[in-house]
Amino acid sequence: MLERIEPKRNSAALLWVGGIAFTFFIAFLGYLLAKVPGFDHVGQLASAIVIAVVFRQIFGYPEVIRPGIGFSSKKLLRFAIILYGLKLNINTVLHDGIGLLIRDAGVITFAILLTIWLAKVFKADKNISLLLGVGTGVCGAAAIAAVAPIVKSKDEDTAIGVGIIALVGTIFAIIYTILRPILPLSAVDYGIWSGISLHELAHVALAAAPGGEDSLAIGLLAKLGRVFLLVPLCFIFMYFMKRKNQGQESSDNKIEFPWFLIGFILMSLFGSYVLGSHIHVSAGFMSGVSNLTTWCLTAAMVGLGLNVSLKDLRTKALRPLLAMLITSICLSILAYFIV
Fold first, then answer.
1. In this structure, are residues 151 and 241 in contact, taking their beta carbons and an 8 Å threshold?
2. Strand partners of residue 247
3. What's the distance, Cα to Cα, between the start and end of the chain in Å?
4. Which residue of 85, 211, 301, 317 pairs with 267 in a disulfide if CB–CB is 3.0 to 4.6 A?
5. Residues of 120-154 as b/e, b for ≥16 C-beta within 10 angstroms?
6. In terms of Cα–Cα distance, which of 15, 56, 50 is closest to 34?
7. Which has the closest alpha carbon to 233: 118, 328, 146?
8. pLDDT tens digits for range 26-71
9. Are 193 and 339 in contact (CB under 8 A)?
10. What is the pTM of this model?
11. Kind and range of the H or E element at 332?
């Protein structure tokens, strides 16, 4: 009897590892695709999601390795968010960016509320629109990934949101670089504008870099303020979700505490107050951690992308996309005038 059980366990373990390896393989293909002219502006994350979605439409979902893929889309996703905390220097934000932090809070509130209102006007999918509002207001894919389990988002909705935010954010970043020479903004003001209005850290870096070192530094600081506000925002969503589900005893309605956010906070504190002052690490080490974060996040997004049906994408994504586009344009205009 034991002899029969052991091979089954070994087989299950192999399929689990195979599922994880499959998501990293697609992530590697996304990395290669991101080297191709045109896709180099889109980035590894969005490129990998495109490949995953195309694979699903042609070959279907690889059911046999579902447990490993599920591990990537859930556990690796949370691990990537925890590592993402190292990108946030709390000390810098609190000492040098209080004024920016106030504007960041306004930007986040504006983006989420406007996207939700437009979603009602356009009768768009509420869940995808909410995720896009959060991604637009805070920090793109990382914010969507953090909020998704709290609002009980489906994997395919999360993947759709991440794909849209990556694509639209890239387009906006390129438009910013085109507008840079003709805008009556100093390098610092241009950096602030980029930092408080663009979607991802990578988008801010892409747009602010042409303005010079000062522009890039202040742009990233403004963006980090929005990342900093991700944690209180998640707890606000938890509060509203608990109120919404109050009196409903179903296990599906229970809100699990997002423990990965505690990890995010601890890593932020560790990176802000321990690394560099008490523990000295090389730039190469920090670069390696950043690359690990990117790869884990990409593999997780592949797992989510494999759940996307193009039929659902056409029927569910167009109206939220329109709402998010209008919000992004309005946010850019608002941010320009409050710089």
1. yes
2. none
3. 71
4. 85
5. eebebbebbbbbbbbbbbbbbbbbbbbbbbbbebe
6. 50
7. 146
8. 999 999 998 988 777 777 887 888 899 889 888 888 889 989 998 9
9. yes
10. 0.81
11. helix 310-338
